[in-house]
Amino acid sequence: MAQDCLWPGGPVYYYGEGVFRPSTDSFLLGGFAPVRRFDRVCDLGAGMGLLGLLLWAREPSVSVTAVELLPMGCELCRRMADQNGMDMTVVETDFRDRAALPMGKHDLVVCNPPYFSLPSGATAEARPGEARSEVTATLADVLSAAAWLLPTGGRLAMVYRPERLTDLLCAARCHGLEPKRLRLVQHDARSAPSMVLLECRRGGRPGLTVEPPLLLRHSDGQETKDVQSAYFRHREEP
User: Is 117:46 a contact under the CB 8 Å cutoff?
Assistant: First the structure.
């Protein structure tokens, strides 16, 4: 088991074998998700709980429900919550099981879902075939669970792959989750998008805002302010 912190002396998180490791995807989604004071947040497929920690670090008034299938992930979530004094409930279950999750009781659902439909696509190093490919859950499963958890007006924030953007937008609307805010992620201004950040509203009216691309690097190779914010670089200053 390994340990790290969001900034020196800041909130601690844990990761290890059998759980998908921290990634840029999660940090960028943590900065993009529209978290508000006293939000009831649900993280679907929480892994080691990093997304919930990122949102809590930005807004400590939130309560987080971490839904994770693997016992190791649940153990890491509980350890992280205890270490940081987070208001986190860990639910060890398959999020496709409606009996384990209350209907319409969360303000914000977040998810870093499987990207690749089988049989193509990459797989996670530590969780073969699960975290990055649709082995245990499909995109439709994620959206169906989010629609179940959110009341009318509730928000969903996800990170996804640009080559499946059409699938994502169509499936979201089919599940009553109206796409409202979209941002493409690029390595730099000359690069093609490598990720998509999307916010949906449960029962929302049509109307999508496409934000300026999120660039990871300037032309000189330096990190952009968006990346620095996502990784809490400002908290590292003396």
Answer: no
Query: Distance between CA 93 and CA 71 in Å, rounded?
Result: 9
Domain that holds residue 50: 2-236
166-223 tens-digit pLDDT: 999 999 999 999 999 999 999 999 999 999 999 999 999 999 999 999 999 999 999 9
**What does the block give as tokens for 231?**
């990784």
Which residue is listed with tokens 């074998």? 17
Please, what sign has the CA dihedral across residues 129, 133, 134, 139? positive
DSSP at 217: B
Q: Which helix (DSSP H) or strand (DSSP E) does residue 68 occupy?
A: strand 63-68
Residue type present at position 24? T
Q: What is the CATH number of the domain that holds 34?
A: 3.40.50.150
Residue 124 has pLDDT above 50, yes or no: no
| Helix residue ranges, H only, 34-164 | 50-58, 71-84, 139-149
Separation of alpha carbons 83 and 52, rounded Å: 14
Share of the chain above pLDDT 70, in %: 89
Rounded distance between C-alpha atoms, residue 107 and residue 105, angstroms: 7
Of residues 183, 187, 139, the one with CA closest to residue 164: 139
Predicted local distance difference test score (pLDDT) of residue 136: 65
Structural domain count, the chain: 1
Q: Which of 89, 200, 104 is nearest to 148 (CA)?
A: 104
* Single pTM value for the model: 0.90
